[in-house]
Amino acid sequence: xxxxxxxxxxxxxxxxxxxxxxxxxxxxxxxxxxxxxxxxxxxxxxxxxxxxxxxxxxxxxxxxxxxxxxxxxxxxxxxxxxxxxxxxxxxxxxxxxxxxxxxxxxxxxxxxxxxxxxxxxxxxxxxxxxxxxxxxxxxxxxxxxxxxxxxxxxxxxxxxxxxxxxxxxxxxxxxxxxxxxxxxxxxxxxxxxxxxxxxxxxxxxxxxxxxxxxxxxxxxxxxxxxxxxxxxxxxxxxxxxxxxxxxxxxxxxxxxxxxxxxxxxxxxxxxxxxxxxxxxxxxxxxxxxxxxxxxxxxxxxxxxxxxxxxxxxxxxxxxxxxx
Length: 323
Fold this sequence. Notes:
- The protein contains 12 helices and 7 strands.
- The chain is of the alpha/beta class and about 325 residues long.
- Strands 2-5-1-6-7 form a 5-stranded parallel β-sheet, with helices on both faces. Strands 3-4 form a two-stranded antiparallel sheet.
- β3 and β4 (about 110) form a beta hairpin.
- The longest helix is centred in the C-terminal third of the chain and has 21 residues, at about 230-250.
């Protein structure tokens, strides 16, 4: 991370140190947090969850919607308040401002204390520590606790809630059964380039193409097949999309928005308007979208010919088409 030259990578390291310094305050606020959760009343505000596999554009979509829609979300400061994220947010978020135009991120980590955060420090309360899997049933007690938490969040901040966490792509049925006002915004990208990006992510984050990274991943054994990691990652991408299809089939179509990464990059303003119309029934004022320009699409070959051709062949086999 230090060698990456990326601001978001540097900020992630700063954030961790900051969290340690604020631990005593977090502990002091924990009692107030418990009382807030206990008295929370049911809310009808929307809970908006972004779905998609790792490296499919979920972080960029999260940053965009967080900046241009009237929502609250887990920010990087909330990581410092794992015991009291709502109370800590009420105390300290007043000193933070939404900054439009900052789309820098480092493999899902965003810079700035008000930058949107995946929220593993919260979701893990109910879904466990494994970032690649979820239990079949979290039980009635944890389900109730999860519902109470978001009711308390709505009561505290008074706005719809937005979050992106790739693992939530495996939890569509749970969320549909738990939250009457949940909406899902799914984004998909050409699987060839998702696979390529995951190969690069393994090298950058794990230091090896053979070490698992991202939702649904597994380690690859170079002694079995030197290019086996390509096949493993293609399978990872395919299986995540199968899970997304399964989840989508369980949801009211009016509450499920499916987007393409390529279209989002080409015209992000139209995507923001589409989400706003479907959830709020109205569009965002054009003046409020000024400065939201097209993003540079990264769908181009960045790895060796051997790897890229292997991806194309594997994807064609899995998806049943000819490259």
